[in-house]
């Protein structure tokens, strides 16, 4: 096991992590649900499967840019969250079709 693959969530303890755009990560309780999009980045080597999740406005930026580049990544400014926190974010929002 490699602990660098995990984060210590203040709610859930030592957990696998995912990358979530700043807009979803910073949502407050009571905010309107938004569409979200999810993709899995399979690590080149082996074990690291990190899920990436981003919101509709990030997706618009992604489409505008055509790919994840400096501009679209700066817009998304992904945050690391644990997979349980990610599930909470997903439950609160609406899954969009890629
Ligand atoms: Zn976003
Ligand atoms: Zn958590």
Describe this structure in words.
With 98 residues, the chain is of the alpha/beta class. It has one domain. Helices cover 32% and strands 34% of the residues. The protein is built from four helices and six strands, in the order ββαββααβαβ. Strands 1, 2, 3, 4, 5 and 6 form a six-stranded mixed β-sheet that branches. A hairpin with a 3-residue loop joins strand 1 and strand 2. The radius of gyration is 14 Å and the shape is globular. It starts with 5 loop residues before the first strand and ends with a strand.
Number of domains: 1
Shape: globular
**Count of DSSP-assigned helices:** 4
Q: Describe the biggest sheet?
A: 6 strands, mixed
Distance between the termini: 33 Å
Helix/strand order: EEHEEHHEHE
**Helicity, as a percent range:** 25-40%
Structural class: alpha/beta
Structural Rg: 14 Å
Strand content: 25-35%
Ions, cofactors and other ligands present here are: zinc ion
Q: Give the averaged pLDDT, no decimals.
A: 90
Unreliable parts? none
Instruction: Please provide the count of β strands.
Output: 6
Brief overview:
The chain is an alpha/beta fold and 98 residues long. It is built from four helices and six strands, in the order E-E-H-E-E-H-H-E-H-E.
Topology:
Elements: E1 6-9, E2 13-20, H1 22-25, E3 35-42, E4 49-55, H2 56-65, H3 70-76, E5 79-82, H4 83-92, E6 94-95
Helix pairs in contact: 2-3
Bound molecules: zinc ion (2 copies).
């Amino acid at each position: 096991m490699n602990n660098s693959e995990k984060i210590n969530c203040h709610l859930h303890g030592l957990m696998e992590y995912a990358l979530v755009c700043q807009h979803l990560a910073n949502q407050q309780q009571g905010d309107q649900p938004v569409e979200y999009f999810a993709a899995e980045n399979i690590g080149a080597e082996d074990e690291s499967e990190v899920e990436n999740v981003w919101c509709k406005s990030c997706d618009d930026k992604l489409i505008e840019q055509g790919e994840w580049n400096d501009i679209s990544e700066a817009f998304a400014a992904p945050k690391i969250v644990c997979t349980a926190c990610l599930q909470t974010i997903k439950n609160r929002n609406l899954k969009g079709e890629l």
